[in-house]
Structure formats: structure tokens, C-alpha cells
Amino acid sequence: MNHALALSLVSLVSFVSFQGRIIVTDNTASYEFGKRITFTLTVNSAVEVQAITLFVLTSDDSRTQVTEADFTPGTSVTATVERGLRDHPVPPFSAVKYWWRVADASGAELTTDPATLAYEDNRFTWQTAQRGVVTAHWYAGDLAFGQLAADIGAGALERINRDIGAPPPESVDAYIYKSVKDLQGGLELGGRTWVGGHADPALGVVLVAVPPGPEAALGLERDLPHELTHVLIYQFTKPNYAAVPSWLNEGLAVTQQVQPDPTYRLAVQRAQSAGTLLPLTELCGAFPVDAADATLAYAESESVVRYIRDRWGSAKLAALLAAYADGATCAGGTQRVLNTTLAGLENDWARDVLQASPLSNILRRIAPWLLLFLLPLIPLIGLAFASTTKTQRHEDH
């Protein structure tokens, strides 16, 4: 090969290499909490950039969202993609992963490394304090308040771990709102709804509403252990966390509260007197949306879980979680671990805790079906009564 040909080949290779080189000069993401996330990419290329595609993956969606960016082709372009959060909400305090693919007219392509946007409730300026794996975040109150939250959270994790043997997560972030209104606003903007607390166990994030002040310790000791229990149950049962019955999940969470809710015992007593206790089979899935029924669901769940602990010990609660982690059904878990059906567990609980007779439990369970059976007979009973009355009057005359 002569010298001139070699130079020509080197020049051609250099030209193709330069021609296909795409350079990213800006890659950013910003957001307005609850409203929108804006992704921006600026690139330069020796030839015209013809296609830019954005890929987004959020913690609550296993599918990657793919969006073709709308831009004017050129050798130096900026593409912007806006994600509306009202129609496509993102969980508060989650991580949004995103990356881009760029193609130019030469056929060259560039895929950027994945970047992560921390989607936090930036309506407030958060302070932080830490104890162990727990980081407390708060915006109202002094450093002592934040450290108190971190201390209570760390102590709760140790206590829950001893009780059910759930491995602690690598880290937990506890966000302390000063009011239910502030908390609810953040959850609604993130596509969630709740009342006094919330946990995203997969994220290791808990949210509670506790204002600073003389009663702060009571509120934190009530709410933080409850939400942290869900995080540890997730650690114990993933990837089958969704299989854990609500009565066990919420019942364990309520029993971990240092400050019990006095309304729960009263709710169970009133429901027992009125014959309106909720069957355990109805507490396997989501709890009722009605406030009174939801309170009763929590109250019954707490009472049943305490009954299991008192009768069989905490080891059986851990064994139940293991059974559900293994894929057991709601009824199958109690059969496998406690050697009883859900109905049997409910009857034993009612007898031993509520002092209800087995007959009353049976009647309560079949009452709806008995009513359906008797309804069609009411007209016949009425006719029979009327006929008897008419006959009696005829005989009297």
C-alpha cells in the first residue's frame, strides 16, 4: 500500500468517526411537585440529528415509558419532554430513572447512561437527623424534634425485628409532616390517598403527620412503629408482599404502636353487641373505605393478632408471614401454620377474647343468608296470618 492511499484511508476513517460522533452537552430533569417533570437534552453532531427518544422508569411501574421527543432537526438541537403528573402521578419520595437515545443522519446512535431524579415533596425545606438506618426528615420543629423521630424509628425497628424476625432494610427514610393536611396534600399530588400515615415499603419510605410540641413523642410512638412495620413485613415477604392478608399486615402494625388507640377496643365491643363484626374472610383484602367500617377492620385485626401472639407465641406470627411469602392463600396460611381454618380462628378468638358462644358466631355468619331465605316467605307468612285471623273471627260469630 503506497503512502498516498494510506493517508486517504486514515482520512476516510477519521471523517466517518467524526461524522458519527454525537456529543451530549446538557442532560437535566426538573420538576414542579404534583404538576410536571421536565426532561431536557441538548446534543451536537457533525450531521443532522434526526431522532431523540426518552425512556422513563418509575418505582410503581414495571414498564418503561417511551416518548419520541418533538424537536427541529439540526446539528445542534435541544429536545424537551414534559410529563404531566396529574394524569401520570409519581409516588412521593421515589426515584425516577431516565435515559435518552439519539440518532443522526449518518446512522450513528447514542444511548445515554441512566440518570436518576429524586422526586421529593419540595413544597417544604426538609431538615435531616439520623439514628442507625433511620433518617428522619422534617420541616417544622427544632433539631431535638427531628432527632426524637430518628431515635423512636430506630428503636421501633429493633423491637419489630425481635417480635417477628423480619430483617431490617439497608435504609429507611421517615418524613414527618406537621399536619394531616400537608401530608394528604402530598399524597394526593403523588396519586395516593390516606389519612394519618403512609408507607411505600418497596422504597423504604414512611410518611406520618405529627406536629412538634409537648405531645410529639406520643404521636411519633403511635405512627412511626405502625408504618415501619409495613416496611419490615415487606422485607420479610418480598416479592410476595401483596399476598400478606390485610388483617395480619395491619394487625401487626397496630400492635407495634407504643400508644394504642383506645377507640379500637370500643369499636369491637360495639360491633359484637350489634352483631356486626366483620368476618376474617372479608379482611383478607383491602379494608373498607367507610370510616367506621375501616376503624372496625383495624380494631378486629389488632385483636386477632394479639390473640395469636398470646395463644401461640410470636414465632407463629413469623411463621404465618413465611407461609404467605411462600405463596399461601389467606385461608391456606392459617391452615398450614395454626392448623385451623379462618372460620375456626375467628370462632376461637370470639370465644376466648370476646366470650361469645359458638352458636352466636354461627348465627352471625349465616345471618345474611338466613335473611335472604326468609324474605320470600314474608308474604306467605302474612297471608297465613290473615287467613288464621279471618277463620278465628268466623268461628267467633
Structure description:
47% of the residues lie in helices and 23% in strands. It is of the alpha+beta class. The protein folds into 3 domains: 20-119, Sandwich (Immunoglobulin-like); 122-238, Collagenase ColT, N-terminal domain (Glutaredoxin, 3-Layer(aba) Sandwich), CATH 3.40.30.160; 239-356, no CATH class. The strands form 2 sheets. Strands 1, 2, 3, 4, 5, 6 and 7 form a 7-stranded antiparallel β-sheet that branches. A 5-stranded mixed β-sheet has the order 8-9-10-12-11. A hairpin with a 4-residue loop joins strand 5 (94-104) and strand 6. The protein is elongated. 32% of the residues are buried. The model is unreliable at 1-19 and 357-361 (pLDDT under 50).
Précis, in short:
The protein has helices spanning 3-19, 143-164, 180-189, 216-237, 246-255, 262-274, 291-312, 314-325, 330-338, 342-352, 358-374, 377-396, and strands spanning 22-32, 36-58, 65-68, 74-84, 94-104, 109-111, 115-119, 127-131, 134-138, 172-177, 197-200, 205-209. It is an alpha+beta fold. Helix 8 crosses helix 9 (330-338).
